[in-house]
Amino acid sequence: MGANNKPFFSVNNLTHSFGGLTAVSGFDLTVEPESVWGIIGPNGAGKTTIFNLITGVYKADEGSVALWGEELVGLKSHRIVGRGIARTFQNIRLFKSMSVIDNIRTGAYGRLRYPWYSCLLRSGRFRSAENQVRQECCAILEKFGLADRRHQPAASLPYGVQRKIELARALISRPVLLLLDEPGAGMNPAELDALADLVLWVRQEFKVAILIIEHRMPLVMKVCQQVRVLNFGRTLFTGKPGDLRGDAAVVRAYLG
């Protein structure tokens, strides 16, 4: 709870349908600061839909999404980023022809407050803000070990490095809650181990809470403190990752 006795992040009765198909039904979740939650389940369970509802890509049919008690449902995506929620995507969405540093810079603009005409006039306020963003980008590139690649086009870099760039772009927005949508997709076991270490480092270094959608169970087991299992938009299980195999419904629906 914060100073106003409101939960850090809460989702209540979140429901969304596509036509006659209910993708998410009555989803609830309460997240504490700097905690790591996993959201898992079979394909079509509603996991990415929940991320899209949280981040304003879709508007919920019913329910509430709140950060420190402030309602987010109905806000545009860039406003939600400005409130402190950032995400990565299941399929990497970088500007492939742009440099690494310019890709990361784009993540900062949800929190900049200079007016549009400052860009045209190249005002002092604009130059000061842009200089600050560039300094922050350079600092985060150093932390991610990418400083020597800052001017390379994103498309020229290996898949695992592109994942790191996307994560750095999310973090430059200064989030307090980070949503990771299948960050381990396409990675081999060695890359998956390195990713798990990176996620844990990000949580500690940047003091963020993390929600992670993931099918790769070794990653879930290593990084998540709590897990929510979904099936056809409904919650099957909530608890510690180590207890998953003891739940018969989870085994039937997901683990096999």
Main sheet attributes: strand count, strand direction, barrel closure? 6 strands, mixed
CATH superfamily of the largest domain: P-loop containing nucleotide triphosphate hydrolases
Topology, number of strands: 10
Question: Regarding CATH, which class of the largest domain?
Answer: Alpha Beta
Q: How are helices and strands ordered from N to C?
A: EEEHEEHEHHHHEHEHEEH
Radius of gyration: 19 Å
Mean pLDDT: 91
Strand content: 15-25%
> What is CATH's topology name of the largest domain?
Rossmann fold
**What is the CATH architecture descriptor of the largest domain?**
3-Layer(aba) Sandwich
Can you describe what's shown?
By secondary structure, the chain is α/β, with parallel strands linked by helices. It folds into two domains: 1-84 and 176-256, Rossmann fold (3-Layer(aba) Sandwich), CATH 3.40.50.300; 97-174, no CATH class. 37% of the residues lie in helices and 23% in strands. It has helices at residues 47-54, 77-83, 100-106, 116-121, 124-143, 159-171, 189-206, 217-223, 248-255, and strands at 9-18, 21-31, 36-40, 62-67, 70-71, 85-87, 177-181, 209-213, 226-231, 234-239. A hairpin with a 2-residue loop joins strand 4 and strand 5. The longest helix has 20 residues, at 124-143.
